[in-house]
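Tutorial, part two.
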Amino acid sequence: MESDFFVLDSSAVIAYYNTEDPHHSESLRISEAFSDKKAVLHPFVIQEVATAFAYRFGPAEAEQFFADIRGAASMLIPVVQVEKDIAFFEQVGKKMSFTDLALVRLAKEMRAPLFTFDKQILSLMQDLK
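Running the prediction step on this input gives:
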């Protein structure tokens, strides 16, 4: 059964907003392909994206991102499940960011695709199939 959701990684969100990002065009194309699904934006990703925008482009970009997610009708911001994320982090045992592993766990649990350009995440998703 195909999921009605897709999980967003910060690499995909940043590429979507940043026209200079090498993955910008691809992010627009993939976003269009997911247009009939609900985006899942983990709180850890919100933190990563807002920080990246504030440092790279200034606080106005982060504020625009906040306005966009506040106004998004087709977005789910899940509750952080730290104990599940810790257990998954320990189970996987790879040198990866805690946030990345939390996203992989969430995508697996929701049986949803994970929209990312991060090669390490993509590799792990493939390994876990």
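The CA atoms of residues 8 and 31 lie 10 Å apart. In part three we will examine how such features are distributed along the chain.
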